[in-house]
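Figure 2 data, in text form.
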Amino acid sequence: MTPRLDMIGLVVSDMAASLAFYRRLGFALPADADAQPHVEAELPGGLRIAWDTEDTVRSFDPSWTRPTGGDRRELAFRCDSPAEVDALYAELTGAGHPGHLKPWDAFWGQRYAVVLDPDGCGVSLFAAL
């Protein structure tokens, strides 16, 4: 048997804030999930994404500590057009999420931007030029 990637797990400080951010990126997550210690969503193609609070992780790994210095992870979201990159960046930063890299035309042929999620992790937005 060959292992296959089945789920991406995110450890979050504030479940409600994190889910609100990812709802703006198109995740259909029920409102009652905000109070849960573990939340999962299935992505197209069957891959899953999950959010766990720091307390949940510490419940089975008491030695876990919040990472410091540098990004913990990065997710990248493909947009349909360069204009969508700009609009989504404006929406997210307008909602109070810090922008890390304003939209720009990258030398590798994409419109590219990075905004930070509620835990300070980079979330890339990109589209082909």
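Caption note: Strands lie at 7-12, 38-42, 48-53, 74-78, 99-105, 110-116, 122-128.
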